[in-house]
Recover the amino acids of this structure.
């Protein structure tokens, strides 16, 4: 496999592709939004270590997102993009949804974000009312939140079934970047990026939407990564 750099991918960027990361390509085609996994031939070289940047659960996360959005749309009134298609072609998974108009919550003023937070709190309560005794997403795949996933290199999680339905549905990546808002009404038009979602103990849902930034601890915030990882390890099938 020939080494690939981000510059090389940018030079070969396809029509309608507006962003490329080390894990995904993003497209806006008419009224549709497309997110696809990178093919192995597109895995990039880490400029520091010289090794391939292999996306963790790269295809599984998109399959999980598709199943989760369908599940949420069917069982709640939480606004999610309409799923149009999810398929695999030439070693890449494509997730196709409707394109949602609006602005990202992280672009709003602090006062405006407070208004949106109130609506999000209601949606989180709805998610907590969805319960199960089986870990993971509707796809049947257990994908820990990013802040836990990066603490271990395992490629699969097999969890014990719970004795009661005490697991709740968690988004697991609920940052201000993943909430689209109508700038005039401040109503949420869509919650995006359900790649890490599924049934987990309620502690897994981080309230990262209460400030701009990623879905990990920053600026002295309490870090729960080790605690959540241990909780998963203690509940594995042996």
């Amino acid at each position: 496999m020939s080494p690939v750099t981000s510059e090389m991918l940018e030079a070969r960027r396809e029509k309608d592709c507006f962003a490329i990361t080390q894990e995904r390509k993003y497209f806006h085609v008419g009224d549709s939004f497309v997110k696809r996994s990178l093919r192995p031939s597109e895995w990039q070289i880490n400029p520091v270590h010289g090794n391939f940047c292999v996306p963790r659960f790269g295809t599984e996360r998109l399959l999980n997102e598709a199943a989760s959005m369908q599940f949420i749309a069917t069982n709640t009134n939480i606004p999610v993009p309409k799923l149009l298609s999810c398929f695999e072609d030439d070693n890449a998974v494509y997730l196709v949804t409707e394109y949602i108009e609006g602005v990202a919550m992280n672009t709003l003023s602090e006062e405006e974000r407070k208004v949106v937070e109130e609506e999000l709190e209601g949606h989180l309560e709805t998610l907590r009312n969805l319960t199960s005794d089986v870990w993971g997403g509707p796809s049947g795949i257990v994908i820990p939140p990013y802040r836990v996933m990066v603490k271990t290199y395992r490629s699969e999680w097999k969890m014990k079934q719970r004795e009661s339905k005490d697991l709740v549905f968690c988004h697991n990546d609920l940052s201000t970047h993943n909430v689209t808002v109508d700038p005039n009404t401040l109503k949420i038009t869509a919650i995006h990026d359900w790649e890490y979602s599924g049934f987990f103990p309620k502690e897994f849902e981080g309230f990262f939407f209460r400030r701009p930034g990623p879905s990990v601890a920053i600026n002295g915030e309490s870090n729960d990564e080790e605690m959540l990882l241990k909780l998963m390890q203690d509940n594995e099938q042996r």
User: Anything to note?
Assistant: The helical segments are 6-11, 58-75, 110-128, 146-149, 225-234. The mean pLDDT is 95. Residues 25 and 36 are 5 Å apart (CA to CA).
